[in-house]
């Protein structure tokens, strides 16, 4: 992701800049080369010719490299039905995005939309999950989709080897998975195919607007664009100040345990346990308020994740752990995405969320056209930062 840097105006110690296809004013430019920024940049390139991505580097906090990879709808939207609709719209566009990327690059992104499961291990969890799903879908204006509370027998018929402690699971047909690393590779390969300028080691130190054109200060000089999108994750808070937007985001640490490859047996993913297309197992879903300690692995948390996974599928006791990692989610004050155009700097947009995989299709195929058109429609107003000001005044 991109952001502010102490050496934003000097090239001392930096390698030579990557060659640029376009030397003039870009039609649109994205700050941040992770999944959110890359998806938006790819979408922008489908609409205009001259697009650039300014990225900071691999030493930055990068949520994309730690993503669990769910394309998930169930559980999204409690307290904001618009988020349920937005998530569903992205799920419906995902097959189109995957097809477009494959046609252009020849790369598969591991998309599987076979439905999804959320396991419950006790009678209390069983009843609470039913209550939650009914409450979620009964909200006025909430998107509707099929779901079912599977009992233990129904779940066992779907998932071989389910553990004796598992009480059941909620199931929906609208959930799925993708491979985050394959997705990021496909997007960046598309950049090369379509001559989109990806410029790493280009942290943005300042942003100004002169004569209707944005000027972005980087270690390699000023880069200009007619429209810009802030998609730099946690650094959006600092960069937002440059365009008159207060963007309240915070880091939330998540940890993942990776098990060795086995024969593929789990075709319908759980919300906390999935098997990748090549057979690797991922265990995840921890949520920790730990500041910027993204490289810290907490053994108690990993033990809790592993214990629940083994109780779900006991055969995993015999599968070896090969690695684990932690990464930082980009969380807004209320956990929902932020999409907004700056009132003081028209043409400058912000895109912030913690669901870079789920929302990749919406970012590429819906947000990008909105940026080119120069306005977000009224349906996107729930995602603006104005919602935080209303809460403060209440």
Automatic annotation (TrEMBL):
GO terms for molecular function: oxidoreductase activity. InterPro entries: FAD-dep_OxRdtase, FAD/NAD-bd_sf. The keyword Protease does not apply. Residues 1-12 have a biased composition (Polar residues). It comes from the Bacteria. Keywords: Oxidoreductase. Residues 1-20 are annotated as: Disordered. Residues 27-368 form the FAD dependent oxidoreductase domain. One of its GO terms (cellular component) is cytoplasm. The keyword Lipoprotein does not apply. This is FAD-binding oxidoreductase.
